[in-house]
Amino acid sequence: MKYSFEILCIEPEDLKNEKSFSKGLSFSDSLWKGKEPEEKVTKGITSLIQPELELEVKIVPLDTSKMFTDYVETAFILTAASKNFNELEEFRKRLLRHLKAKLSFEHIRILRDDISTFIANDLYPKINEVENTLRRYLVKFFTQRVGVDWWEVTANKKMIEKVKMRKKR
After folding, report:
1. At the topology level of CATH, where does 3-118 sit?
2. pLDDT tens sequence across 72-103
3. Which of 7, 30, 41, 42 is deepest in the core (most CB within 10 A)?
């Protein structure tokens, strides 16, 4: 499986074109763990490829000339991809740090994050199990200690109204 991490990067002051943006990414030792990536340009799309880290980053410039406001002069979509989950998980953090701290991007929007999705999908069944176990415990405890009308006895008016509103929806 190939994992992707896609972000929208909007207008740093000194990166006005794809070439300068590509250089700002490729010359970072900390981003690439000291192994400078190979640059490949295909049909106007620049790719930075680091085979040793099993990473590829594609840079797609966006046409900002048709935007309603003049605020944005340059914008790029960056897509980092890898079959190596651990490498991409680490790289996305380094990438965001580099974009903010070194390249001065103030506006970064995450468009796709397969790593977070995978982690969430892996964790949800465990969270659901804890939730159900806790619910079971609470119902048993309160029924045995307070009685079958434990909810009415223990809940305040605000809580009861909140539950009624949710049930209506």
Report:
1. TATA-Binding Protein (3.30.310)
2. 677 889 999 999 999 999 999 999 999 999 88
3. 7
